[in-house]
Write a structure and sequence with these properties.
Layout lengths: L2 E2 L10 H7 L5 E7 L7 E8 L3 E8 L8 H21 L12 E2 L8 E2 L5 E6 L4 E3 L6 H18 L17 H14 L6 H13 L5 H7 L6 E3 L8 E4 L5 E4 L6 E3 L1 H12 L16 H14 L6 H5 L1 H22 L11 H18 L1 H15 L1
Length: 378
């Protein structure tokens, strides 16, 4: 029996047809929504090939990724580079896998359906699972290890070999400019929550330039980054409980490595996730310590002195940036992030701003933790 759970609109129209493009001679048994992605439509496909055999099927959001073929070009470059690195220098302490692109029957790495939508399939990391939140120091250390290992595997990949699939992505001044333009045309200015968000952004608008200014004056170099190393993109072995992969590679591109470090800390050190009650939101410093320990255990000593100095600014900035992006999308009518109701992006913004405040209130202790972790790794 084929089970298909669809999302709204055209996604469901060609869901089964899209799965069949990548399933070779296997019969599609089950198609289920997968993960908590806020941009693309993602499904887990089970094929009836004598035993359970899964792959990931995605419909790329072309309102976000205007040229999705560039994503596939990046994945080919990334896959080839990492495969060579792992062949020459296998990871001795654990298994480590990178998702691979699955071809269609006619050897293409994507399929465009009759409605013009862009589909692709990637391998599923067997015997693994992702986490929604980090609940202990061990999980934080594994998340840090995964991000650090990814950086180590791509540190010698020239950034110019990759396409910039999202121009302006993780460039906070660009988001600030977009927010200011949307604000001028928005009528939602009387809501107390909206007013709070507007005031919060206004009081920190100069801080939005901290990393890009350091890049402009030569202190921070462009490197290959993951772009979205949140906790749910770290795959954990179901038996060993060790990190075995980092997935969702659509945002791999040239950028500042600090955006990855900051986003990993932002995601993993907020124990209650992105949709809790506001009173539950806080940045947990001991999870930060564990994550950085894991990161520097895997990352070679390639971070410059300046990059280490800006780690605190990066986690504060990324929480602020994401809150501003959520609020901007709310003002614009929820056109970027998926939502279940009109105000969800507003609530998400409030969570990130509360997290920013928690980070700011612990600045002294976080600077100490970061300095201690960085010195140990040298």
């Amino acid at each position: 029996m084929i089970k298909e759970q669809s999302t709204k609109g055209k996604t469901s129209d060609y869901l089964r047809a899209a799965a069949e493009q990548f399933s070779s001679e296997d019969q599609i048994f089950e198609i289920l929504p997968f993960g908590d992605g806020k941009v693309n439509d993602t499904f887990l496909v089970n094929t009836a090939s004598g035993h359970e055999k899964y792959f990931i099927l995605q419909r790329i959001n072309q309102r976000v990724f205007r040229r999705p073929e560039l994503i596939m070009q990046n994945l080919r470059v990334l896959s080839g580079h990492v495969s060579k690195r792992l062949t020459n220098n296998p990871i001795a302490s654990r298994r480590w896998e990178m998702p691979s692109v699955l071809p269609t029957a006619d050897s293409k790495d994507y399929w465009i359906d009759p409605g013009g939508f862009f589909w692709r399939a990637i391998s599923f990391i067997d015997d693994s699972e992702s986490l929604e939140t980090v609940t202990g120091h061990g999980q934080a250390a594994e998340a840090g290890f995964a991000v650090g290992l990814f950086h180590s595997l791509v540190i010698d990949l020239p950034a110019e070999r990759l396409n910039d699939t999202l121009a302006g992505f993780h460039m906070t001044p660009v988001y600030l400019q977009r927010y200011q333009a949307i604000l001028e045309s928005s009528s939602d200015r009387l809501s107390p929550d909206a007013a709070y968000c507007m005031d919060f952004i206004n009081r920190r608008k100069e801080f939005a330039h901290v990393l890009e200014s350091a890049k402009a004056d030569g202190r921070l170099p462009l490197r290959v980054i993951h772009g979205d190393p949140k906790v749910s993109n770290i795959m954990i072995d179901t038996v060993t409980r060790l990190a075995v992969s980092i997935v969702d590679l659509d945002t791999v591109k040239p950028g500042l490595i600090l955006y990855d470090i900051g986003d990993s800390l932002r995601s993993c050190c907020n124990p209650h996730g992105e949709d809790p009650r506001l009173e539950e939101v806080h940045f947990e410093p001991e999870l930060c310590r564990a994550l950085l320990k894991g990161y520097f255990s895997a990352a070679e000593n390639f971070l410059s002195e300046h990059e280490r100095e800006f780690i605190y600014d990066s986690v504060r900035l990324i929480a602020f940036e994401l809150g501003m992006r959520f609020f901007t999308d709310y003002l614009e009518g929820n056109v970027y992030f998926k939502v279940t109701d009109r105000r969800q992006n507003l609530r998400r913004a409030l969570v990130q701003f509360r997290l920013t405040e928690s980070i700011e209130s612990q600045a002294k202790s976080l600077h100490s933790i970061i300095k201690e972790s960085s010195v140990v790794s040298l």
